């Protein structure tokens, strides 16, 4: 078996970050629009540096506003609708309307835990470590594909407003995003036709928007309080020599302004003596109340009383005092997170030089007052909290474009570095444009019972298939203890030093078995070769992603076949003959569809097999538990 992520950068690093490539012509140029994108859970937006004012500006295309709701709707005839128009379908056609997809990026089914029922659309759940997929009718979508639809809309708006092709971007992510989530964000950008120059932490982008970090000699400790529609996080950053270090981050990915709206709705239900069941059945009334609650929340940031009606009979009035009483527990939770983050960072409020407010929900006066009181200083909310992250991303994009001569641009990797995984896929370890020196790693496991060796093949390039990239090195990690598939934990780390020497190490954590290899700088590429590799990655982006998805679907199917066949061998005595026959029939259907190359058909067969086998798999588990309690051995 081969492992998973990867790619290695060529070792001629110094010039690539300072040169722009016109991706429509392939020519080198000094000026090109590089946008900054805030890909949010609830809302997204795109910004750029205005060529005359040299200031970051959020794009407002056709007067539709700067904010694009992160909602995707698929119509019956296959049309895709993104943004404000898609929001209307959240209540009328929830099964085909996707929201909060950012929560699913880089996540497995098990990662969702108790929040599986949060979503109104169907998430395939095979109780595995596999990445989440969403089923809409007979089609299957990954969070990467759905995020790409949002990014395509942002790109289209930018191109329409700026009257120029937009091919390059900086995209922001929460500071707590792990490597898998960051790579998924990169992949979404690639699928949307964007070269993602860098993934930037949202708190770092917000700091840049406020001018913190522009001067390389500046040294500060900053708190970034980010309260959006559906998520909250607090990050403590240390700025030293132009580099932001995340000291700690804390929060709740299911806490935000939506909870404030819900508190208002519950208050109105009680005041009007509405029956909860009636509300649940009347989706239109539910939506109207939600919109009124959001309107009330915004109004109470400016005034003391809000009054309105729904359906002419339901009184929707509330005072700011009552509103603050209702949301006090929500605000208290965020302050407790601030306390935890400060403890983790080993800092006191007195040691914080600046507090920055991000997210639309920070407009609520009680929130601002509570944060300022906790840190003992006035929080900075002078910039539009909805736009601040995108504005910072635009500044970072401008730095990467080489347009800010006053800022030191550190050497970066010109091409992605990574390894080969199952099916001949490229899994990124160090993405293109990462600052050097740097270190990054990912964790892998085995796919076959008793596997004792793992081949680590190191590649460099931007294509999804390793055969299209450049092989740099290969070695075997031997002596892995023989264990069931999925039990070994192998860390693969890339350490790239300032001289461009790459060291790759693999360590099996349970046994301590390790192996490493060094890749020397003589494997460098010329600037022309690097440019051609980048051009090829954009030209073939859609084909590459399609090929990757087919391979991933096949891998999922092969693992399902292996697991179900093994289950039948070990537990056949607990099953009825008709259950065994039906399972074997579905196994054969899955085998038959594997060579088709149709991702949706393969995943549909996988889903059908999983749905059919789940009930008796649970029954066998109950039998095993009873045997264990009786002192019998479980296989």
Automatic annotation (TrEMBL):
PROSITE patterns listed in its UniProt record: HSP70_1, HSP70_2, HSP70_3
Domain of life: Bacteria
Species of provenance: Pontibacter ramchanderi
Record protein name field: Molecular chaperone HscA
Keywords from the UniProt entry: ATP-binding, Chaperone, Nucleotide-binding
InterPro entries: ATPase_NBD, Heat_shock_70_CS, HSP70_C_sf, HSP70_peptide-bd_sf, Hsp_70_fam
Family named by the database record: Belongs to the heat shock protein 70 family.
Keyword match Chaperone: yes
Alphabetized GO MF terms: ATP binding; ATP-dependent protein folding chaperone
Xref: Pfam families: HSP70 (PF00012)
């Amino acid at each position: 078996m081969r492992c998973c992520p990867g790619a290695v950068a060529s070792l001629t690093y110094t010039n690539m970050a300072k040169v722009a490539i016109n991706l429509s012509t392939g020519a080198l140029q000094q000026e090109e629009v590089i946008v900054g994108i805030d890909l949010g859970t609830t809302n997204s937006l795109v910004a750029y540096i205005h060529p005359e004012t040299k200031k970051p500006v959020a794009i407002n295309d056709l007067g539709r506003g700067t904010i694009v709701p992160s909602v995707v709707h698929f119509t019956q005839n296959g049309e895709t609708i993104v943004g404000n128009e898609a929001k209307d379908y959240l209540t009328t056609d929830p099964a085909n309307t996707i929201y909060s997809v950012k929560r699913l990026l880089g996540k497995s089914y098990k990662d969702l835990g108790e929040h599986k029922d949060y979503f109104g659309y169907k998430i395939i759940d095979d109780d595995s470590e596999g990445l989440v997929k969403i089923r809409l009718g007979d089609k299957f979508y990954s969070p990467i594909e759905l995020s790409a639809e949002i990014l395509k809309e942002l790109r289209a708006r930018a191109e329409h407003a700026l009257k120029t092709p937009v091919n390059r971007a900086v995209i922001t992510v929460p500071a707590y995003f792990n490597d898998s989530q960051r790579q998924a964000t990169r992949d979404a950008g690639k699928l949307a036709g964007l070269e993602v120059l860098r993934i930037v932490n949202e708190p770092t982008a917000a700091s840049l928007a406020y001018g913190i970090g522009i001067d390389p000699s500046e040294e500060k400790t900053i708190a970034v309080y980010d309260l959006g529609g559906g998520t909250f996080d607090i990050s403590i950053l240390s700025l030293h020599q132009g580099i932001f270090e995340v000291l700690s981050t804390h929060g709740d990915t299911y806490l935000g302004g939506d909870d404030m709206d819900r508190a208002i709705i519950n208050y109105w239900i009680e005041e009007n003596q509405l029956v909860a069941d009636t509300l649940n059945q009347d989706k239109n009334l539910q939506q109207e109340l939600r919109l009124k609650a959001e309107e009330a929340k915004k109004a109470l940031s400016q005034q003391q009383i809000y009054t309105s009606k729904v359906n002419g009979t339901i009184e929707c009035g509330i005072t700011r005092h009552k509103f603050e009483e209702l949301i006090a527990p929500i605000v208290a939770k965020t302050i407790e997170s601030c306390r935890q983050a400060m403890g983790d960072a080993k800092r006191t409020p007195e040691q914080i030089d600046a507090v920055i407010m991000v997210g639309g929900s920070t407009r609520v006066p009680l929130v601002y007052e509570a944060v300022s009181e906790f840190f003992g200083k006035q929080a900075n909310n002078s910039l539009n909290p909805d736009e601040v992250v995108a504005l910072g991303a635009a500044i970072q994009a401008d730095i990467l474009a080489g347009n800010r001569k006053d800022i030191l641009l550190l050497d970066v990797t010109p091409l992605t570095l990574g390894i080969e995984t199952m099916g001949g896929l490229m899994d990124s370890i160090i993405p293109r444009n990462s600052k050097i020196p740097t270190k990054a790693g990912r964790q892998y496991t085995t796919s076959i019972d008793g596997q004792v060796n793992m081949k680590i093949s190191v590649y460099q390039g931007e294509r999804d298939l390793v055969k299209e990239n450049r092989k740099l090195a290969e070695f075997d990690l031997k002596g892995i203890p023989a264990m069931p598939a999925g039990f070994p934990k192998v860390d693969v780390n890339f350490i790239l030093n300032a001289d461009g020497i790459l060291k790759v190490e693999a360590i099996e954590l349970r046994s301590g078995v390790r192996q490493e290899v060094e890749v020397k700088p003589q494997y460098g590429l010329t600037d022309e070769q690097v440019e051609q590799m980048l051009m090829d990655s954009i030209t073939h982006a859609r084909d590459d992603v399609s090929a990757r998805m087919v391979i991933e679907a096949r891998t999922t199917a092969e693992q399902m076949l292996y697991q179900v066949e093994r289950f039948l061998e070990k537990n056949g005595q607990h099953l009825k003959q008709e259950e065994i026959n039906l399972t074997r029939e579905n196994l054969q259907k899955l085998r038959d569809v594997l060579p088709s190359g149709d991702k949706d058909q393969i995943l549909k067969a996988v889903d059908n097999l999983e749905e059919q086998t789940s009930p008796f798999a649970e029954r066998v588990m109950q039998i095993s538990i009873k045997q264990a309690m009786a002192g019998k051995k479980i296989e």
